[in-house]
TrEMBL record:
It is found in: Mitochondrion. SUPFAM superfamilies: LuxS/MPP-like metallohydrolase. Its main location: mitochondrion. It holds the Pfam family Peptidase_M16. GO terms for molecular function: metal ion binding. Coiled coil: none annotated. Keywords: Mitochondrion, Transit peptide. One of its GO terms (cellular component) is mitochondrion. Residues 59-195 form the Peptidase M16 N-terminal domain. Residues 201-353 form the Peptidase M16 C-terminal domain. InterPro entries: Metalloenz_LuxS/M16 (IPR011249), MPP/UQCRC_Complex (IPR050361), Pept_M16_N (IPR011765), Peptidase_M16_C (IPR007863). This is Uncharacterized protein.
Length: 430
């Protein structure tokens, strides 16, 4: 791999060096008929290599011999790490990812990526901020971001647009309210900058957030189509565990947003299992047992979902007049599962669906990157798909019934609802 520059700070940007554009364009202009199939035997597949450096950085690499490289940096710097003083900083940081860096202007980065047909993306969740790039493996470059005050000011309009787009989706709104009601501090933080903080996040706050959270002990580097030795020299950031993590306690509760929308969106959830645990796998099987399909003139949709972080519940969309009937009928199905009204055939079918969905999710490079990154960041290890499938196979009817009773039916619940709520029951009425 050529042209790899280390970076001295985060957030950063991974991009494709524009000097290779001429070679790329030339290759595209050659007739396909003139190209010969390679005669060399394909290289044997390699396993995922995981290593943890002394400074705490976890490096995960997979040499798949692809001409394209997928590189991602996963950081424990999601919205749960926002504080009361800088709420929304993780949202602004995500939008600032493609601004001018220490090595290139925003315009140069955009043109360089376009010339090579590469792609850049930055995503965030409650837990994680992820920077990913796809490009030709010979032209991978990194560069440190340099926060400019005037560019941060210009982000205000983008923050407003981003919030407005999210607010157009009722599901996002009701899930945000669900987390706000379910947790104290940290996990109750919104993924989006609150209205009172729009335009008030300063460059100093951005830099401070990066210094406190984007450290080697809270970071995982994942590369597909790159060598581990390259990855070891890829990052040069602050060492250590970073700022102390604020614990968030599940409390349960209820939030209702009254408006004049014809459709009522409602979620009733409870504290779920930790990712990778037997409880989490049992909830995944239960989710497929309950399934979807309650559709009629009055019911738009009913789904049983696993909400991150670690919540399981039922999400209903119904006409305002029939909201009570739909919500109570959906909750009744969960209670039926807790009473053992689940057959072995249901369990077998659900486990097959869980395994199929998992395998399809890691079939592409993007899904595989996300799965490896999540595991590396949380456990500093990687479980092969066979191991994951074996864990799902061990789930029994007793496991499903137990987790349904203990963690849902008999547990403290959380409810969030929005719409014309005149016929929507309160949580204690369900």
């Amino acid at each position: 791999m050529r042209g790899v520059r280390s970076l001295n700070d985060l957030p950063f940007l991974i991009w494709c060096h524009h000097n290779a554009s001429a070679r790329w364009i030339e290759a595209l202009t050659k007739p396909l008929a003139a190209r010969r199939a390679p005669t060399a035997a394909p290289s044997p597949p390699e396993s995922v290599q995981v290593s943890k450096l002394l400074n705490g950085l976890v490096i995960t690499s997979l040499e798949n011999y692809s001409p394209f490289s997928n590189v991602g940096v996963f950081v424990k710097a999601g919205s749960r790490y926002d504080t009361l003083e800088n709420q929304g900083v993780s949202h602004v940081l995500r939008l600032a990812a493609k601004l001018t860096t220490k090595g290139a202007s925003a315009f140069k980065i955009c043109r360089g990526v376009e010339a090579l047909g590469g792609s850049l993306s930055v995503t965030s969740s409650t837990e994680t901020l992820a920077y990913t790039a796809n490009c030709l493996r010979d032209d991978l470059v990194t560069t440190a971001q340099d926060v400019r005050p005037w560019e941060v000011e210009e982000l205000t309009s983008r923050v407003k647009v981003d919030k407005a787009v999210a607010q157009q989706c009722p599901l996002i709104g009701v899930i945000e309210k669900l987390h706000e009601a379910a947790y104290k501090t940290a996990l109750s933080n919104s993924l989006y900058c609150p209205d009172n903080m729009v335009g008030r996040i300063s460059p100093k706050q951005l830099q401070s957030f990066v210094q406190d959270n984007c450290t080697t002990g809270r970071m995982a580097l994942v590369g597909l189509g790159v060598l581990r030795q390259v990855g070891e020299g890829f990052l040069s950031v602050r060492s250590g565990a970073g700022a102390p993590v604020v614990k968030s306690v599940y409390r349960g509760g209820e939030l209702r947003v009254q408006n004049h929308e014809d459709l009522v969106h409602a979620v009733i959830a409870s504290d779920g299992g930790v990712t990778g645990s037997v409880e989490a796998d049992a909830f995944s099987v239960l989710q497929r047992i309950l399934g979807t399909g309650m559709h009629s003139e009055t019911v738009t949709n009913v789904e049983w979902l696993s909400f991150r972080p670690q919540l399981f519940g039922v999400y209903t969309i119904a006409q305002a007049a029939s909201a009570a009937e739909v919500i109570k009928a959906s909750v009744a199905q969960v209670r039926a599962a807790a009473e053992g009204n689940v057959s072995e055939a249901d369990i077998s079918r659900a486990k097959s669906q869980v395994k199929a969905e998992y395998l399809m999710s890691v079939e592409g490079s993007d899904g595989l990157m996300e799965e490896i990154g999540a595991q590396a960041l949380n456990t500093a290890a990687y479980q092969l798909p066979d191991t994951v499938l074996q864990a799902i196979d061990t789930i029994t009817t007793e496991d499903v019934v137990k987790v349904t009773c203990k963690k849902n039916v008999d547990a403290k619940k959380t409810m969030a609802a929005s719409g014309h709520l005149v016929n929507t029951p309160f949580m204690d009425e369900v």
